[in-house]
Amino acid sequence: MRRFLAVLAAGFLAAGLLAAGCGSRGSQSNKLTLAGSTAFAPVADKLAKGFQAKNPNVKIDIHSIGSIVGIKSTNEGSCDIGMADVVELPATAASLKSTAISRDGIAVVVHPGNPVKGLTKDQVMKIFDGTFSNWADVGGADHAISVIAREESSGTRSAFDRILGIKGRLTKSAQFQNSNGACQLAVATDPHAIGYVSFVMVDASVHALAVDGVEATIQNVRDGKFPISATDFFLTRGEPTPLAKSFIEFALSPEGQKLIADAGLIPLK
User: Fold this and answer.
1) Phi, psi of 218 (to 5 degrees)
2) Is the same domain home to 109 and 216?
């Protein structure tokens, strides 16, 4: 039921996106609408501010609704640029033009007070598929594990499930959250929780676990050592509008890639 409600809520968000006129594609030459990944949205906001500093007459709306709904909105033409953070774009994006913008690590996070500071990839998988349900199973305290996961419209979840091999096998006790920020807060306020978030969302309120002995750092993702990561894509329906094209080019420019790096992601250039 929780999973159904999460998907239903994502659908309502998408409907709201259409109804609010977040922009029929190309309807205004000075207005740009981005929709999708909740993990990339804060970075997109920084890019928007940088772009608007050079183009003060441009209005940019960013809708953080999840990668899968962002892809749907792009297909339907209700946004100029879709945002998706995935290992590989799904079949629903096959007809869209995609541009890789950056890479991002996905951190497995626990409460800072949790004595467990690292897990193997296999242990993470077994926690999320329900094989391990007590922290004592992985060297922690004798207490039930609270599993925090994203809803099905999340690109972060799609990447996490694919890399861990748990698609369709997530424990039925999982608590679903509708954004990276909500996942972070759920873990930060529950001493027995475990979840996953974009590296961008890791701060002192949560602890990012080492996985297979590799610390969750940007450099380790860049070097291919950290095992859980995704690529951030911009998507357009066919060739982008002139304004969308300029924005994508800005994101890939030295200035845009520096903004991406400063935000905690891994630039491609």
Assistant:
1) -60, -45
2) yes
Expressed as residue numbers, the domain containing 99 is 2-103+230-267
Domain co-membership, 215 together with 113: yes
260: nearest Cα among 64, 39, 95, 63 = 39
Q: What is the DSSP string of 86-155?
A: ESS--GGGTTSEEEEEEEEEEEEEE-TT-S--EE-HHHHHHHHTTS--BGGGGTS-SSB-EEEEE-TT-H
Instruction: Please give the backbone phi and psi of residue 7, each rounded to the nearest 5 degrees, phi first.
Output: -65, -40
At residue 102, what is the residue type?
Answer: S
Write out pLDDT tens, residues 235-268. 999 999 999 999 999 999 999 999 999 998 999 8
- CATH code: domain of residue 183: 3.40.190.10
**Alpha carbon distance 236, 245 (integer Å):** 9
Tell me the pLDDT tens digit for each residue of 110-139: 999 999 999 999 999 999 999 999 999 999
Q: Are residues 146 and 66 in the same domain?
A: no
- Same structural domain, 124 and 212: yes
pLDDT < 70 regions, the chain:
1-28
| Whether 59 and 88 share a structural domain | yes
258 and 241 co-located in one domain: yes
How distant, in Å, are the alpha carbons of 125, 226, 228, 233 from that of 163? 9, 12, 7, 18
